[in-house]
Amino acid sequence: MTLMSKLANPPTFKPFRLALIQLGSIGANKSDNLKHAREMILKAASGKPDLIVLPECFNSPYGHVHFPVYAEKIGFKPGEAYDIGKSESESVKMLSSAAKECRTWLIGGSIPERDASSDDVYNTCTVYNPQGELVASHRKVHLFDIDIPGKIKFKESETLTGGTTTNFFDTDFARIGLGICYDIRFPELAMISARQGCQVLVYPGAFNMTTGPLHWELLQRGRAVDNQVFFSMCSPARDTTAGYHAWGHSMVVDPMGKVLCEAEEGEQILYTDVDPKVFDEARAGIPVTMQRRFDVYPDVSVGL
Ligand SMILES: NC(=O)CC(=O)C(=O)O
User: Fold this and answer.
1) I need a labelling partner for 63 at 20 to 30 A (CA). Which of 25, 124, 186, 212 fits?
2) Where are the coiled-coil regions (predicted)?
3) Rounded CA gap, 28 and 164, in Å?
4) How far apart are CA 273 and CA 51, in angstroms?
5) Are 128 and 135 in contact (CB under 8 A)?
6) Ligand 1 mean position to 181 CA, how many Å?
7) Angle at 153 between CA 32 and CA 249, to 5 degrees
8) What is the pLDDT of residues 150-207, one digit of tens each?
């Protein structure tokens, strides 16, 4: 499929129910993590969502030393059929069967992925349709390398490689753009997704106790308002016994910047009914999508 044919005709935006799983109990044992994630997906499905979302790095502890140890070969290529039966990834198999069993769309948070040919490790999100087919993926483009003296130092690039593509997928109710956590700090990515027709952007994420209080909500409301889209990040629950203390506070923001729902820090399933009326009203009332001045500055989405 060419990019132009993929970009044509975003689906008509229809009301849908979104479930965010702010997953807890993510420990050292991958099988236990997968078992618990599966149980929580089934639990979330009882609320009849159309789309379920898991957090960043849900099958392993979050830290650069862990990524190569937990990494799995996925081997997904956009536009090519993927045979789940032949997948080497136990996480992909679990996510596929859970999506199929629940008959829902599933954004499978992210997991460390080892590329089959280069051996490079990525932080990768995979997406499943209600038939359990793996239909899209996103490799975290911007690696989380920060050093705030006395507060937090983190260097994903010690073991991870950054992805090189922007990604979205089409459902029967919306076109949904993907990013992972630190990607939100780079407004170009969200802007490109919005220009490609995405009405909803979902970024599994795991902010921390330094950046979370200041930036988690601010960035989501900013990306939602400047692109007039629904924006959501799904975090792991906070575990103060873990090496990395996630902020939690999984959230959904509407195109006017209103926070529709927000978790606290513990394990929780959040449901939100996404209403396209707000999207239409925001764009009609504040028509920035038609007021851009590409005679003054370049359109960064051109050519993508
Ligand atoms: N964990 C991340 O990728 C990003 C983060 O915590 C932040 O940007 O702050």
Assistant:
1) 186
2) none
3) 29
4) 11
5) yes
6) 6
7) 55
8) 999 999 999 999 999 999 999 999 999 999 999 999 999 999 999 999 999 999 999 9
Ligand 1 first shell, C-beta below 6 A: 144, 181-182, 185, 206-208, 211, 215
Least Cα distance to 108 among 85, 86, 143, 132 occurs for: 132
CB 143 within 8 A of CB 122: no
Nearest CA to ligand 1 atom 3: 182
Two tokens at 275?
């209403």
What is the rounded CA–CA span in Å between residue 167 and residue 189? 9
**Pocket probe mutation, ligand 1, options 210, 211, 245, 249, max atoms within 8 Å of Cβ:** 211
The CA dihedral of 249, 216, 234, 75, to the nearest 10 degrees, is -150
Atom of ligand 1 nearest to the CA of 140: 3
Place of tokens 């989501």: 220
Instruction: Reply yes or no on whether the pLDDT at 29 is more than 90.
Output: yes
Q: Which atom of ligand 1 is nearest to the CA of 180?
A: 3
| Dist. CA 155–CA 250, nearest whole Å | 23
Nearest to 112 by CA among 124, 129, 99: 124
Residue 176 near residue 201, CB atoms below 8 Å: yes
User: Which residue's CA is minimally distant from atom 8 of ligand 1?
Assistant: 182
The set of catalytic residues is 56, 140, 181
3-state SS assignment for residue 4: helix
What ipTM was predicted for this assembly? 0.98
- Could you count the other beta carbons within 10 Å of the beta carbon of residue 241? 6
Distance 153 CA to ligand 1 centre (A): 11
